[in-house]
Amino acid sequence: MSRRIDGKAIAAQIKDELKEEVLRLKGSGVTVGLAVILVGEDTASAIYVNNKKKACEYVGIESVSYELPADTSQEDLLALIGRLNQEEKINGILVQLPLPEHIDEEAVITAISPDKDVDGFHTESAGRLLVGKEGFLPCTPAGIIQLIRRSGFSIEGKECVVVGRSNIVGKPMALLLLRENATVTVAHSKTENLQQVTSRADILVAAVGKPKFITADYVKEGAVVIDVGIHRTAGRKMCGDVDFEEVQKKAAAITPVPGGVGPMTIAMLLANCVEAAKR
């Protein structure tokens, strides 16, 4: 039976470290401020934003929330972002995705100052990651690196496979693993012999977007398996991209859903906010 990687416990550890850092910053006259923008009434997004607010409060980050109606125009949203870019007390700006269909997500992300892009989605942030310069890292991939490290597993020299090539998880995940001196393969929907590819992985990151897609047949004996997916079954039970019950019998360690990668995403958002204030 594999070891369960407890994302909640590791995220709590990171938040406690950040809490001390925020106190030190306040002692030197620096406050940390985050602006969170929610457009529309998507229930899942509203819950996620509320969790972010609670996490900010715990760490000592001053969060300001802008909850806008679903019919807010793109022009008005961009104007708000423009004002927040100029606001000295705001170190980070986060626009909760997805946005209503009439708003261009790319235009909104690009409008956020790269110096306040605590989600790490701006093309300048992505470029900095690609060439190895200092910049904000996308929160989910950065959280996964922390999960692996803080669980005592080495990444250097290991064969890593990332299943999924999204701009938010798959691509930056591969770059961060490369930065840790791993040998990295990015697999996706067009990959031939996927099972053969994933079965080589010492560390397997599943970000495929299909419930329980990764079964034991896809996993090498003794691998570390990180499940990025989040889905609800017909019975409203949460599950990930990995068939947890089967894979845990084969893996050395595995993240559960919920309680694995999810809590780390918020913890790394807070870390980016603190980093923005320090800069």
Description:
The chain has helices at residues 7-27, 43-59, 74-86, 105-111, 123-131, 139-150, 170-179, 194-198, 244-247, 261-278, and strands spanning 3-4, 33-39, 62-68, 92-95, 159-163, 183-187, 203-206, 224-227, 231-232, 238-239, 253-254. It is built from ten helices and eleven strands. Helix 1 runs parallel beside helix 10 and helix 6 (139-150) crosses helix 10 (261-278). The strands form three sheets. It has a six-stranded parallel sheet with strand order 1-11-8-7-5-6. It is of the alpha/beta class and 279 residues long. Helix 2 links the parallel strand 2 and strand 3 (62-68). The chain folds into two domains: 29-114, 3-Layer(aba) Sandwich (Rossmann fold), CATH 3.40.50; 139-262, NAD(P)-binding Rossmann-like Domain (Rossmann fold). Helix content is 42%, strand content 16%. The longest helix has 21 residues, at 7-27. It is globular and about 50 Å long.
SSE blueprint and pairings:
Blueprint: E1 3-4, H1 7-27, E2 33-39, H2 43-59, E3 62-68, H3 74-86, E4 92-95, H4 105-111, H5 123-131, H6 139-150, E5 159-163, H7 170-179, E6 183-187, H8 194-198, E7 203-206, E8 224-227, E9 231-232, E10 238-239, H9 244-247, E11 253-254, H10 261-278
Parallel strand pairs: 1-11, 2-3, 2-4, 5-6, 5-7, 7-8, 8-11
Antiparallel strand pairs: 9-10
Helix pairs in contact: 1-10, 6-7, 6-10
